[in-house]
Amino acid sequence: MSEPVLKSQWLMNLDISFDPPSVATPNRVIINVTSGRAEGPRFGADIIAPSGDWVRLQEDGNWKIDARLAFRTDDGESVFCYYSGVVVMDDDLNKRFEAGEVISGTETYLTSAPNFETSSEKYAWLNDIVCIGRASTFGGGKLVYDIFEIL
């Protein structure tokens, strides 16, 4: 029996800017997304308000992502994106993040599963795809993802 293969294609780069996190409770951090840009061969859009991440901090220091982003496409369409995911953050990485250092995606596991919703006919294909996001950099008020469509 041959080994299964998972096929994907790069969909877009997602560049997010955010405010310093606000601690709501000992295990809940709210991150306000202030701006950002999604750019790919089939999709270009700016992140608009309201957008943010309601992170749940686990006892082991890792983060459970609960993000919601609003997009306005370059041609004026509205797209909603929501995703869950995981950020593996040991004590050293947490301290570096809190100090404002930019952490490479190769130093941590920061992976998400974006979903899209839109009533736009032009971008309706986004409603019916499965995606995986992998961070390339994180920290210093920025998060940069590469988003891949699973084929």
Class of secondary structure makeup: mainly beta
N-C termini distance: 21 Å
> Level of helix content?
under 10%
- Kindly give the count of domains: 1
CATH class: Mainly Beta
Please summarize what this structure is.
The protein has one domain: Porin (Beta Barrel), CATH 2.40.160.20. It is mainly beta. It is built from 1 helix and 10 strands.
Structure write-up:
This protein is mostly beta strands and 151 residues long. It has a single domain (8-150), classed as Porin (Beta Barrel). It has one helix and ten strands; from the N terminus they run E-E-E-E-E-E-H-E-E-E-E. The chain has an eight-stranded antiparallel beta barrel. A hairpin with a 5-residue loop joins strand 4 (44-57) and strand 5 (63-73). The longest helix has 8 residues, at 91-98. It is globular.
